[in-house]
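Why should sequence recovery work at all? Because a backbone constrains its sequence more than one might expect. Tight turns favour small or flexible residues, buried strands favour hydrophobic ones, and helices have their own preferences. The token representation captures these environments compactly. In the example below, the structure is given first.
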């Protein structure tokens, strides 16, 4: 599964949590209504909406611009380019002097 698909999956999951928290008064059984009157659940629903929007924005950005990644290039050192100060092992193993 690609990262873009995971972002879309998480956006859907956060949207489901947001709907469940924000529409709990209509989804809950009648006897459970007074127990679900907390303002914290409203704030949690809004936070879940924010996470869903964030994941959708990241998914959209990855789809439209190729993820904004630079191509991976690795410079290989030349054989004669070794710095003896940073050679911590090898044939001439010497201890550092101060």
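From this structural description, the recovered sequence reads:
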């Amino acid at each position: 599964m690609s990262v873009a698909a995971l972002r879309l999956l998480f956006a859907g999951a956060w949207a489901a949590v947001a709907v469940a928290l924000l529409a709990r008064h209509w989804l809950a059984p009648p006897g459970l209504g007074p127990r679900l009157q907390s303002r914290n659940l409203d704030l949690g629903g809004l936070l879940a909406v924010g996470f869903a929007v964030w994941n959708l924005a990241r998914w959209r950005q990855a789809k439209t611009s190729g993820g904004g990644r630079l191509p991976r290039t690795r410079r290989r050192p030349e054989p004669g380019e070794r710095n003896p100060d940073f050679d911590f092992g090898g044939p001439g193993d010497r201890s550092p002097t101060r």
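A few observations help interpret the result. The chain is about 50% helix and 0% strand.
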